[in-house]
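[User] Once you have settled down, look closely at the record that follows, and write a paragraph about the fold.
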Amino acid sequence: MLATLKHFFAPPTFDDPEINLQARNLHTIVIAILLLTGLYLIYTIATRSPVEILVAAVALAAEIGILALIQKNQVRLASYILTTFLWIAVFVSVINYGGIRDTGFAAFTAVVIIAGLTMGIQAGYVVVGLSLVAATGLAAAENQGLLAISTQAPISSVLVSHAITLSAVALLLSLAVNSISAAAQRARDEEQLQKQINLELEESRRTLEQYTGDLENRTTALQAVAELTRLASQANSEAVMLESGARLIAERLEYAHVGIFITDATDEYAILCASNSEAGQSLIAEGYKLQIGRGELAYLISGTELLRYRIGEQTYRVASPIPILGVQGNVTYPLIAGNRLLGLLNIQTATPSPTREEQNILQTFADQLAISIENIRLLAQLQERLREISALAGRTVQQAWENVRAGGVIGYQYDRLQLLPGGQRFPPQVLELLAARKVAQFVVRDPEPRARLIAPLILRDEVIGILGYEDDDPAHEWLPEEITLLETVSFQVSLALENSRLVSEAQDRADREQTVSEIVSRISTEIDVDAILQSTVREIGRLVGDSEIAVQLQTPQKG
């Protein structure tokens, strides 16, 4: 019960600062009026005045109701009720106790201040206007004799009226000063908060700008890495890729000098192979290179700073690249593939050393550059192996078809009536086209002019024959469709011929193996040495035909 009453009479707290200030001022005023009303009720009970007791009790109930409205966040409604109640009370009091000449008329001042504190300055103006209208009406009523003038009020009533009015005005002025002070403090707090917010916003703006710059640099770096990958895939040599990579890094990240060093076959030197700057090109022409040492007891270069890289189980110590005139930043990144140092990426800038973000980007460049170099080298090795395999296969195919053609030229021609043996000679320019694996068009004059189109039969880059057709009109223009058809058919014929040759070789091999197996089977049935030798000579003779066969066992001579 006590806790509930304590909570009921405690000042309310709301989220809105403006409403919270009005509610606290209104709560203070109502509590003060409530105390005065309580004292007045006690006074009326003591004087046994039934009317005044009823008035005091009604006023007390109304003030408690106003407190309940304040606790329910009905601040504006409570202000309206209180201001109206007080203004009517003062007006009635003035009429009953002396009109406008009575000192109680000054209580309208307290009502004006209450209205201003609880509802705003506009409400205060409204109450002032009502009070002036009431004063004018009271004065007119007194002048017309409609209202009795009571100037003989007891001195105690005058003193009490003055005390209440002055106390109320002092209290309200105190509240007004407190409100102004609170508003000023709130303004100062808001100003300080705004300054803090501005500082945080400025810091956030700088952070956002830095983050945006880093993001742009990272995006540029990723684009450059992607372009470097594209260059590596399109470059036909390592030198072209290195030169393009050096220019790409310098242009994208705006560096004064980019140099790419590649280690030699013995890992003794890192040779400058590519650069974007004129100074770098001059160093390349001079054969500029950096000495490399390996192991913990590697050589020491007098007066030269060493770069140390730990790659796998190996420690590399490399002389630092010389600075180009006019640069401030000089950083070098290793190009690593597996457990081997492929080279170095040297960056020199007109500004101090790159930031940590730029260093991460450059390390990404170095890694991608090393991968590109390794891929180009592996591709070159693969192409060389393929060329060797193709050449070996071509020689094998060529030898096989030379064996097939050993019995004479194999060829046929079809004249729309019958299939005839072929075998023709071609002009030198046509032979050159066939040797170059190209389709040849020419005119045959013997026995009569005809247009001819021939294509080489190619197998593993070796020409094993020709295929062609001709037209009776020597001026016939061969269409692209006819040429494409001939090339397609020639390719299929080449495959069919090779398959046929392979099948024939396989069949011959199978026949020989079967014959050898039969000879071995017959020989293995003999037990006597002479019988074995005789069987061997007889079976081999049957196999090779007219050739003479001789078998002889040699006894080693004793020394």
Q: What stands out?
A: DSSP finds 13 helices and twelve strands in the chain. Confidence is low (pLDDT under 50) at residues 297-303.
